[in-house]
Amino acid sequence: MNINWITPLDPQSSEIARYSEQIMPYLEQFAGVVAIEDAAGGSAGAWRSQPEQPVLPEQGVAPLPVYHIGNNPLHLPIYQRSLEEPGLVVLHDLSLVDLARHLSHDLEQPGLWKEMMCRQYGDEVRSLVNRSEKSVADYNEMVAHYPLFQPFVEGALGVVVHSGYARDALCAQLAPGIPVVQLNLPSTLPAEIQPRTASPGPLRFVFCGHVGPNRRLIEFLEAWSHLPEPGLVSLDLFGNISSSRQLSQYAEHYGVAQYIRFNGYVSDAELDEALQSADFAINLRWPTMGEASASQLRYWSAALPTLVSDVGWYGELPDDTVCKISIDNEAGDLLALLEDALLAREKYRQLGQRGWERLHSEHAPSEYARELVAFAADRAGQRFAHTMLERELVTIIAGMCENDTDARLFRDAIETAVATVAPERE
């Protein structure tokens, strides 16, 4: 079958772009990828690979758009394109309130995102939505209990999600006829596990990615400060640490600043080396946006035991593959974990190894690509224009035409119809 893959394009600024780049060679084994674009004029020709046995595009059939939507302004043109032509949506975040706010700003309708919230949940959430603009606690409650997604997927032919948490939320609220499929987020798989042995010095923690209030770093610093000897722990921070000054101030306040290093962006090779030399990773999220974490898969690839919040996708992970921190007893759980890890490093190295094993058994990119294309093919077959025009009308018209040139003229018009006729609802 034919697909158009519509996604952010820069792997340096978007984990979803990195995911797309990694999955593309596997996807092209099962589908004809007609285009890779960002819906804003960019295309990713450099991603194209040459599979050994490529799947040839189905001639004369309009490609099915596959839209990748997450909680970032990079996804605005992708969402707007999805309004013009129904397709498959891969939903990378369940709560899209930040995307809705950016849409409100772009359209110069500051209250639009609030109306979107009220359309999904009813007018009873309006007061909470209004309070969320001034209160962090109310914002966290809104995101945690009222994730905004319905306006961004209600016209989709089908939706792919990466967690049971997101699947259950969508199935409870979407209109009948929009099927939802859960697939495990894919990852490139390291060929072998690198052995981890006991090493002297402090217990080395690492954090990667964008820092925001929901990443719970300040809470980690506070728990760390309660150790009798804080110098037994160190922390390396990588990525977009835009709030480094604020974090430094908190670290000074809690007496741990001298044990922290801000590294910024580094090359993949440097980051891989840092992960291999670390003892733990920090991947706390509260409130969760409903995402499955590409960072977690990268930590598992290095067999790193990881601190995660016991919520959403993270809460679904097996207890023997991550260190779950309760959101209701966060401070106590963090301190208890630090104390235990200092005494039982080998126990946590084994936990990291089980995470590596899960990565291999559940997150293979080839299986993900196969299942996604199978779902896309099923949904493409349900398009009204596909079934009624391509499969029936083309045959009739071709029989009436005297040569192939005439038939192609009609086919061009029919392909345009395929891309614009509303999908059939079951």
Features:
426 residues; disordered C terminus; Rossmann fold; six-stranded parallel sheet; globular; 3 domains; alpha/beta
Low-pLDDT segments, ≥5 res: 385-391, 420-426
H-E order: EHEEHEHHHHHEHEEHEHEHEHEHEHHHHH
Find the CATH superfamily of the largest domain. Glycogen Phosphorylase B
Q: How many domains, in number, for the residues? A: 3
Give the fraction of residues assigned to helices. 40-55%
Named CATH topology of the largest domain: Rossmann fold
CATH architecture of the largest domain: 3-Layer(aba) Sandwich
Q: Supply the CATH class of the largest domain.
A: Alpha Beta
- For the terminal residues, how far apart are their CA atoms? 22 Å
Tell me what the structure shows.
α1 crosses α16 and α3 packs across α4. The chain folds into three domains: 2-94 and 149-186 and 365-380; 203-362, Rossmann fold (3-Layer(aba) Sandwich); 384-420. The protein has 18 helices and twelve strands. It is 46% helix and 13% strand. The protein starts with a strand and ends in a 6-residue tail after the last helix. The protein is globular. The model is unreliable at 385-391 and 420-426 (pLDDT under 50). The protein has 426 residues and is of the alpha/beta class. The strands form two sheets. A six-stranded parallel beta sheet has the order 2-1-3-4-5-6, sandwiched between helices. The protein has a six-stranded parallel beta sheet with strand order 9-8-7-10-11-12, sandwiched between helices.
